[in-house]
Design brief:
With 184 residues, this protein is of the alpha+beta class. Helix content is 33%, strand content 25%. It has one domain: Molybdopterin cofactor biosynthesis C (MoaC) domain (Alpha-Beta Plaits, 2-Layer Sandwich). It has six helices and five strands; from the N terminus they run E-H-H-H-E-E-H-E-E-H-H. A five-stranded antiparallel β-sheet has the order 2-3-1-4-5, with helices on both faces.
């Protein structure tokens, strides 16, 4: 079993020392979705909410959150991101909005938390912008889809690793997700 890296032998929380690690290119992609009433989805799609362009604001929130991850998550290293972005897709079957967030750096530690924080912030912002017409929205399926780089190498979520909640909202195929991440 892998040992926890954020606790010392006495069980005290600590920041991991990455000073001896080599820099490498690192990429992480996170996903999530927000379910809502069909009418709410249509209002977002038609840009009819009084607070403004929901997805434009959610995109900025995601980028800002990725850049501020170490301020939000106590033991996260501050990372100089070289790229970050988010893509949205409307899903009439949910109904809702799917999010794919990407974080990139060249550094000593990964950007998984930055991608996850970006996805979560985008979804929370969508909720905030639309809550006046739909307080019953549900954020679900926030998960790391893949990461590359570093000592542990590449990792891709397989379907058998998906939690039941994530399986229920499984989004586009891996090929479709890969195409979206190239654009992010």
């Amino acid at each position: 079993m892998t040992e926890l890296t954020h606790v010392d032998d006495a069980g005290t929380a600590r920041m991991v020392d990455v000073s001896a690690k080599s820099d490498s290119a690192r990429i992480a992609i996170a996903v999530g979705c927000i379910r809502m009433k069909a009418a709410t989805l249509e209002a977002i799609r038609a840009n009819q909410l009084s607070k403004g362009d929901v997805l434009a604001v959610a995109r900025i929130a995601a980028i800002m959150a990725a850049k501020k991850t170490s301020d939000i998550i106590p033991l996260c290293h501050p990372i100089a991101l070289t790229d970050t972005g988010v893509e949205f897709s409307f899903d009439d079957a949910l109904p809702g909005v799917r999010v794919i967030a990407r974080a990139v750096t060249i550094g000593k530690t990964g950007v998984e938390m930055e991608a996850l924080t970006a996805a979560a912030a985008a979804l929370l912002t969508i909720y905030d912008m639309a809550k006046a017409i739909d307080r019953g929205m549900v954020i679900t399926g926030v998960a790391l889809r893949e990461k590359s780089g570093g000592q542990s190498g590449d990792w891709h979520r397989s379907e058998d690793q998906e939690a039941p909640a994530l399986q229920a909202i499984r989004g586009p195929s891996r090929a479709a997700a890969a195409e979206v991440t190239r654009r992010v």
